[in-house]
Fold:
Amino acid sequence: MSVRHPTHRVRAPGRVNLIGEHTDYNGLPVLPVAIQRSVRIELRARDDRRVRLANADARFEPCEFEIAAEIPPFAPGHWGNYSKAAAQALQRRSGLDCGFDGLVSGDIPAAAGLSSSSALVVASALALVAVNELEIAREDLMVLTAEAERYVGTHSGGMDQAISLGGRAGHAVRIDFDPLRLEPVPIPPDWRFVIANSLVEALKSGGAQAAYNARVRECREALEALPGFILARDH
Structure:
């Protein structure tokens, strides 16, 4: 399937994190890099608030929904929920007049730890920003998409969305939080990072989500048991 006479094309890359696993949701820094693989949407603007999506991967069936401040989710694990997450967040922030017909494609392996889901949230947000001609700072969109993704039930931090929107060629990016700050870190030109797919899937709608959310909860409980550390962080 293709979108006839597309008006826009958007792209959101995946990522690999070099330093700082499970620290972003504790407000601590990370050092990811954006990768060449990405999620892309070819789209045509609509004159109503409907979003209709098809996927170049036949495993994912077409879906559609109406943009609103409260969008009922599809069944857990449905790929369309990541677009719904972006639409609901942007509707609450800015109000949206236009949806779009879109064809989603990409080359990030699903559930492989390269943030394909966050890339879909970011790409969907970029599509809606474009067709509605919204003016929103890139850093604000990083924060919004991070909060938006919790719609699917994963209590994640903001690393994935920030690097997808703020990656720079030839650089890693140090990302600090509270407030969000990005500092590009040059990578020596003769360095190479090799990403190997283990073929073990970590499905965000299944056991991986429960394990991730448990880690977030455990970290918060640990921080609450260390008030002196929290005070030092806050000041």
User: Anything to note?
Assistant: The two ends are 54 Å apart (CA to CA). The chain has one domain: 8-185+199-234. The longest strand covers residues 31-45. The helical segments are 81-94, 116-131, 138-148, 159-166, 207-224, 227-234.
